[in-house]
Write a structure and sequence with these properties.
single chain
């Protein structure tokens, strides 16, 4: 059976990322879906080191960051649900991204395959000139994979949502965009 790794970068348990994950799971009938909340993983922040990840092994190698990236080798599709807070992806996104260096230094040949499997849904209000999409696109700069069809930004204000507590997935147009983006 085909496998999906569905990952939320939200610190909230019942927010838009959680509701969207529930929706995606309900539509992924031909997949085995493993839901992961980055907030529940034990990921040590980068600090108090001498850049061992660049030449040896990260001193925090045994936390969940390396294990998470290793687990992506076993799935057919990776879906990241990333909320935007204060004009940027959540701090959990940056924490995992920062700690990914140890994994990619030892698995560089897997990077294009990883990006081919990765689909990012960004959720939040985007101000004019906001670099939210560009932050995700930068992951694709060192690859042969085009970011165009791998990133979907859902701007909550376009759907009449004014509060972070409003449900984005309750909107039929959002469901249709997600279905098309993920081919559900």
């Amino acid at each position: 059976m085909r496998k999906i790794s569905l990952v939320s970068f939200s610190a909230r348990k019942t927010g838009n990322c959680s509701l969207m994950a529930d929706y995606i799971i309900s539509k992924s009938l031909n997949y085995e879906v493993k839901y992961i909340s980055i907030n529940d993983l034990d990921i040590h922040e980068c600090k108090n080191c001498n850049y061992e990840c660049m030449s040896e092994r990260c001193i925090y190698h045994n936390d969940d960051a390396y294990l998470y990236f290793q687990s992506t080798k076993e799935v057919n599709r990776i879906i990241w649900l990333v909320p935007m807070y204060c004009g940027n992806p959540s701090s959990l996104y940056f924490k995992l991204n920062e700690r990914s260096q140890d994994f990619w230094m030892k698995n560089e040949s897997y990077y294009n395959e990883f990006l081919n499997k990765l689909f990012i849904i960004g959720i939040g209000n985007i101000d004019k000139g906001n670099p939210f999409r560009q932050i995700f696109e930068s992951m694709y700069n060192c690859s042969t994979v085009s970011s165009y069809s791998h990133i979907l930004i859902l701007e909550t204000h376009k759907y009449g949502l004014n509060s972070i507590k409003d449900s984005l997935i309750a909107n039929q147009a959002v469901k249709e965009q997600i279905n098309k983006f993920l081919s559900l």
